[in-house]
Amino acid sequence: MGRLPHATLPEPSTAAGRAGLAALLAAPERAVVVLDFDGTLAPIVPDPEQARAHPGAVPALARLAPKLGSVVVLTGRPAATAVAYGGFAGVPGLEHLVVLGHYGAERWDAATGRTDGPGDDPAVAAARAELPALLADAPQGTWVEDKGGRAVAVHTRRAADPRAAFEALREPLRELADRHGLKLEPGSMVLELRPPGVDKGVALTSYVRHVGASAVLYGGDDLGDLAAFDAVDRLRADGTGGVLVASAATDVPDLSARADLVLPGPAAVVELLAALADALE
C-alpha cells in the first residue's frame, strides 16, 4: 500500500505558513518553489568550490517539478556554477527548471541550456583589485572567492578564529564597498561585495509576479535570504500564499525566528520536497 498523502508533510508553525501550504496543495499548477543552493540544497563545506547538492536533491526535485508551476534555484553564485555543482542539466523532470544566479542578475533555463545576464560589473572589478592590499594583514585562512565578475566574497571560515576575522574585516570591507558604490552583504563567515539593487527579494518578487503564481514556498539558510523572506511577506499581504522555510539556520536567528518551518539542513529539505511530491501524487 502506498504512503498516505500528506502523511509526512511537516506542519508550518504559523497560521500564514499553514495557509500558504494549503494554497500550494490546492493549486500546484500555479505554485512556485524557490530554493537557495548553499546550505539549503547543498551542505555547507569549508571550500565553496567543493559544494555539491545533497544526493537526494535532484531526484526529489525531478519528482516534484512536473507537479508544480515551476521550480527555481535562487543563489548568489553564478548560474552556471550552481547548475554544475547541483547536477541540474539534462535531468528528466527538470526540463523547465530555472536557476537565477548572482541574486537574479543571471538566468539559466533548463529548456534551452542558455545563461543570460549583464556581464561583468566594473565596480566589482575595481574593488577586487584593491583586495590584496586590504587583506595583506588579514588572519591566515582568510581567502577571496571571485563570483563570475558580478560579485566578490571574502571568506573567514578557514581562519583559526572565524568570527574574530569576520568582525575585523567587516568595517574595512564596508568602506571599500562604499568607495565603489557597492553593497556589502554579510553571511555565515563570508562578506560579499556586489552591485546595489540586486538581491533575492527583488529576484523572487519579479519571478513570482511574472509567472502569476498563487503560492510560493521559499527555502534559505543565510542572511542573504532575509530579503526573500521580506518579499514573501509582501506577497502574502497582497494575497499570494507563502511558506517560509529556514534550513539549518541556527547561526542566523533572525531567519529561523521568522520561518514557518525550521529544518535541520539540506537532508531535511530534501525530505520536505519528497513529501510534497508524495502529497501531490
TrEMBL record:
SUPFAM superfamilies reported in the protein's UniProt record: HAD-like
Keywords of this entry: Hydrolase, Magnesium, Metal-binding
GO terms for MF: metal ion binding; trehalose-phosphatase activity
Signal peptide: none
EC numbers for this chain: 3.1.3.12
Enzyme class: hydrolase
InterPro entries named among the record's database cross-references: HAD-like_sf (IPR036412), HAD_sf (IPR023214), OTSB-like (IPR044651), Trehalose_PPase (IPR003337)
Known pathway: Glycan biosynthesis; trehalose biosynthesis
Record's catalysed reaction(s): alpha,alpha-trehalose 6-phosphate + H2O = alpha,alpha-trehalose + phosphate
One Pfam assignment: Trehalose_PPase
GO process terms (BP): trehalose biosynthetic process
The keyword Magnesium appears for this protein: yes
Function as written in the Swiss-Prot or TrEMBL entry: Removes the phosphate from trehalose 6-phosphate to produce free trehalose.
Family the entry assigns: Belongs to the trehalose phosphatase family.
Name of the featured protein: Trehalose 6-phosphate phosphatase
